[in-house]
């Protein structure tokens, strides 16, 4: 067993889908938000929606760290990279994200900034060791999955006594964003959540309890393979039919009740909560992001280079906010497919291939056309 | 988000590092976040770090549940 | 000056480096050309020492192409920039169904580039051109200051002749035509990426770089009149090639994921980096769009050639005003295969 292909078996998926169709009650609407871009990707790449009955609608959530990073923070990173002494190391996902004034890290690199794509924080540490005269700044983004690797990099930098390494911290927290969606005034009805896969390997199941107890929403933590998603949909349909709201775990092979304690401890040692942080499309969310604790201030690029984030406005016609909350769909946005395409993304949902708009552009249009043909 | 894939540990290395293999592709990763790993274990790999061990028994149980549901939902 | 060595001392090909004098037009340059390039490419035209090569051509239509090669790293598993510069340009000629005849090669070299590497690249090109039977008959060398180039850039051009009556073109695909692919995709891109700094992983995948003109000649001989067009899916991969064809011919394409050969190691490396093999570059594969009645016979011809052993029928051309390339996934769903947006970059999310 390699834990991949087993979960991409189309015949098995069609069998489970028939079971879902049998159990879903006609006349009832099942609006399910898959929080993570990983789920969105699996759903669109494998055509999972084709298998589901009409009354089950998947709403693509904001779980893509590239999509929710506010433009002002990309502007900050570009300003950091423009400093002559700085080498900015970044995951490649961020290179094409639009910043203010039609710039991006890709364009800043072309303008001469020293920006390097890395696969791992370990690569950034290696660069800092190799080039002691450069200020190496790692552009840290991501949810709880990607945070422990950043924490370990800081540990390593401390151990190696690196004086030229710092991180520009943009790590954000999943449960805080789920709560913000549930509390949004202009929100949309959601009957249940397909909960994060790899985030949950780190934080476990308990952080989601309040969605069951306080908001009465079922959550099924699910893996990122298409069969994982389909099984989670079946589990959600059953909970909704039974009037239950529980935290269930479909991804038992990798997620435990308590998560990865070592990773949680590392994060807690190095990071603390920010009072508030802006999410692109969702606005300010209290206690939703992390920053470095005081004892690690020397590794904090924000303190080291006195970063002051300036407000940056997205295109007012861009519907990314409503789309991220599940209130609108990509095709409801005026910019979609006209001004905003994967080549010239206006909003964050078009940038990452896991964003709702990019996924709809790449895969969903196909279904729209098929439907038109059928009708 | 959080692109991560299951890979198999083929060699434990010093400094909490390990070599993994995925269908003949091999890479050195950090296993500092997961204790007590052994050669042959599958781990979830994300940005060069193992995040969790994959539980074989749970994986089999999940697949069994899927097959059960599929049979129940089999076309008449 | 030594009478027997009018160009001065021989180059130190083991430890020496290229300097600006090697591009200055003087003795140093003549020495470099003699010791590195003529030694590697040796043929009558080069020996004649003219600024151009003159040769007879058979009658018919000529095909001509030019291509620039910039690759990092310069040496990768299964090949190097030199081999690529020979194969890639020959393939561009071959995709017209043409027989490649003669090539040119032009080098832009960064000051400080090791002569040993330059010589290795030249040897590799000479070998590739001899194997292909397409001599490099003229060339040029420039040296630029350190930092103004990345090691070496190579530009090659090639001329060839198209067999009488053959007119392959990107706008000739028609609904019902069959799409044939000459082998597994993604090998070249993965081999190169495995050696990129900060991405390092180990694999036994070799670049598929190869000159395809002999495979093409066999195909043309067997079914020339039934072949609508051929393309080599290089940058942007199979996805880009099919989209190009769809737009040029104003048709759609419907392909089947399960029929597209991908080596397990290539699939694994793509999983690791969050890439899709459909968008990864190939340097020794071709896509042929053929009339449906000729498809089976042509597939057999392709499979009989060593460079086409894993050839497969991967789908067909369909009528579609949107010019979409659509794929039935292994899972049973459908998706659109779009052009690659920007550069294909490894993902973490």
List keywords for this structure.
heterotrimer; A: 375 residues; Rossmann fold; 2 domains; 5-stranded parallel β-sheet; 15 helices; C: 349 residues; alpha+beta; Phosphoribosyl-aminoimidazole Synthetase, Chain A, domain 2; 7-stranded mixed β-sheet; 4-stranded mixed β-sheet; globular
Descriptive report:
The complex is a heterotrimer of chains A (375), B (76) and C (349). Chain A has 375 residues and is α/β, with parallel strands linked by helices. Chain A is 39% helix and 17% strand. Chain A is built from 15 helices and 13 strands. Chain A has a 5-stranded parallel beta sheet with strand order 2-1-7-8-9, with helices on both faces. A 4-stranded parallel beta sheet of chain A has the order 4-3-5-6, sandwiched between helices. In chain A, helix 2 (37-46) packs parallel to helix 15. Chain A starts with 9 loop residues before the first helix and ends with a helix. The longest helix of chain B has 17 residues, at 56-72. The N and C termini of chain B lie far apart (38 Å). Chain B has one domain (5-72): SH3 type barrels, CATH 2.30.30. Chain B has a 5-stranded antiparallel beta sheet, with no helix packed on it. Chain B has 1 helix and 5 strands; from the N terminus they run E-E-E-E-E-H. The relative contact order of chain B is 0.19. Chain C has 349 residues and is an alpha+beta fold. Chain C folds into 2 domains: 20-162, 2-Layer Sandwich (60s Ribosomal Protein L30, Chain: A); 178-336, PurM-like C-terminal domain (Phosphoribosyl-aminoimidazole Synthetase, Chain A, domain 2), CATH 3.90.650. Chain C has helices at residues 27-41, 44-47, 81-94, 115-132, 187-193, 213-223, 237-249, 264-273, 295-304, and strands at 61-69, 75-76, 79-80, 99-110, 136-144, 152-162, 178-181, 227-231, 252-256, 287-290, 312-318, 325-328, 334-336. In chain C, strand 4 (99-110), helix 4 and strand 5 form a beta-alpha-beta unit. Chain C is globular. Chain C starts with 26 loop residues before the first helix and ends in a 13-residue tail after the last strand. Classes of the chains: A alpha/beta (375), B alpha+beta (76), C alpha+beta (349).
């Amino acid at each position: 067993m390699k834990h991949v292909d087993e979960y991409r078996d189309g015949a098995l998926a069609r069998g489970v889908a028939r079971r879902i169709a049998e159990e879903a009650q006609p006349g009832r609407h099942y609006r399910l938000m898959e929080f993570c871009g990983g789920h969105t990707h699996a759903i669109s790449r494998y055509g999972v929606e084709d298998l589901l009955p009409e009354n089950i609608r998947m709403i693509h959530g904001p779980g893509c760290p590239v999509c929710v990073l506010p433009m002002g923070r990309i502007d900050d990173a570009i300003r950091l990279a423009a400093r002559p002494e700085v080498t900015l190391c970044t995951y490649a996902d961020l290179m094409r994200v639009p910043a203010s004034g039609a710039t991006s890290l890709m364009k800043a690199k072309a303008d001469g900034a020293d920006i390097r794509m890395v696969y791992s924080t370990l690569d950034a540490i290696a660069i800092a060791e190799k080039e002691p005269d450069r200020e190496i700044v790692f552009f840290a983004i991501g949810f709880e999955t990607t945070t422990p690797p950043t924490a370990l990099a800081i540990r390593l930098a401390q151990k190696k006594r690196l004086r030229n390494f710092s991180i520009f911290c943009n790590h954000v927290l999943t449960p805080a964003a789920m709560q913000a969606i549930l509390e949004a005034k202009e929100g949309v009805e959601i009957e249940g959540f397909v909960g994060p896969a790899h985030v949950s390997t780190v934080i476990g199941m308990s952080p989601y309890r309040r969605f069951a107890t306080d908001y009465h929403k079922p959550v099924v933590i699910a893996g990122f393979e298409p069969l994982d998603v389909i099984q989670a949909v079946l589990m959600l349909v059953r909970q909704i039919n039974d009037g239950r709201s529980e935290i269930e775990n479909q991804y038992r092979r990798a997620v435990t009740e308590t998560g990865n304690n070592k990773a949680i401890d590392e994060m807690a040692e190095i990071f603390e909560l920010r009072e508030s942080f802006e999410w692109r499309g969702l606005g300010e969310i209290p206690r939703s992001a992390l920053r470095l604790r005081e004892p690690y201030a020397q590794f904090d690029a924000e303190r080291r280079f006195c970063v002051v984030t300036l407000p940056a406005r997205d295109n007012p016609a861009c519907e990314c906010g409503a789309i991220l909350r599940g209130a609108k769909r990509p095709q409801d946005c005026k910019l979609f497919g006209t001004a905003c395409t994967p080549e010239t993304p206006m909003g964050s949902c078009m940038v990452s291939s896991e964003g709702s708009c990019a996924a709809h552009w790449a895969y969903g249009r196909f279904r729209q056309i098929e439907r038109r043909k059928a009708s | 988000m959080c692109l991560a894939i299951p890979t198999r540990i083929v060699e434990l290395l010093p400094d909490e590092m390990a070599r993994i293999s995925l269908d003949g592709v091999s890479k050195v990763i950090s296993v500092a976040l997961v204790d007590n790993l052994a050669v042959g274990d599958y781990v979830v790999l994300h940005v060069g770090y193992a995040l969790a061990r994959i539980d074989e028994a749970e994986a089999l149980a999940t697949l069994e549940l899927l097959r059960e549901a599929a049979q129940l939902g089999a076309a008449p | 000056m030594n009478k027997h060595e009018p160009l001065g001392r021989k180059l130190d090909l083991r430890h020496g480096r290229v300097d600006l004098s090697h591009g200055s037009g003087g003795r140093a340059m003549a020495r470099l050309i003699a010791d590195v390039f003529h030694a590697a490419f040796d043929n009558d035209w080069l020996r004649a020492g003219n600024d151009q090569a003159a040769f007879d051509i058979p009658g018919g239509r000529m095909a001509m192409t030019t291509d620039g090669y910039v690759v990092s790293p310069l040496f990768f598993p299964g090949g190097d920039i030199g081999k690529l510069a020979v194969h890639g340009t020959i393939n561009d000629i071959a995709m017209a169904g043409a027989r490649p005849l003669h090539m040119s090669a032009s080098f832009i070299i960064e000051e400080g580039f090791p002569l040993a590497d330059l010589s290795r690249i030249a040897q590799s090109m000479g070998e590739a051109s001899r194997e292909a039977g397409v001599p490099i008959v003229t060339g040029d060398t420039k040296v630029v200051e350190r930092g103004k180039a990345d090691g070496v850039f190579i530009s090659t051009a090639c001329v060839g002749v198209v067999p009488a009556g053959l007119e392959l073109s990107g706008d000739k695909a028609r609904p019902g035509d069959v799409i044939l692919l000459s082998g597994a995709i993604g090998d070249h891109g993965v081999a190169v990426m495995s050696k990129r700094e900060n991405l390092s992983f180990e694999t036994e995948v070799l670049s598929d770089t190869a000159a395809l003109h002999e495979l093409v000649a066999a195909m043309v001989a067997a079914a020339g009149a039934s072949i609508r067009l051929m393309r080599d899916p290089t940058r942007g991969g199979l996805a880009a090639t099919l989209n190009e064809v769809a737009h040029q011919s104003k048709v759609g394409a419907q392909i089947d994921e399960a029929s597209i050969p991908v080596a397990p190691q290539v699939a694994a490396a793509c999983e690791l980096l969050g890439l899709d093999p459909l968008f990864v570059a190939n340097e020794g594969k071709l896509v042929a769009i053929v009339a449906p009645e000729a498809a089976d016979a042509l597939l057999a011809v392709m499979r009989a050639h060593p460079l086409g052993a894993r050839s497969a029928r991967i789908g067909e051309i369909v009528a579609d005003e949107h010019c979409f390339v659509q794929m039935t996934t292994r899972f049973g769903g459908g998706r659109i295969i779009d052009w690659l947006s920007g550069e294909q970059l490894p993902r973490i999310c």
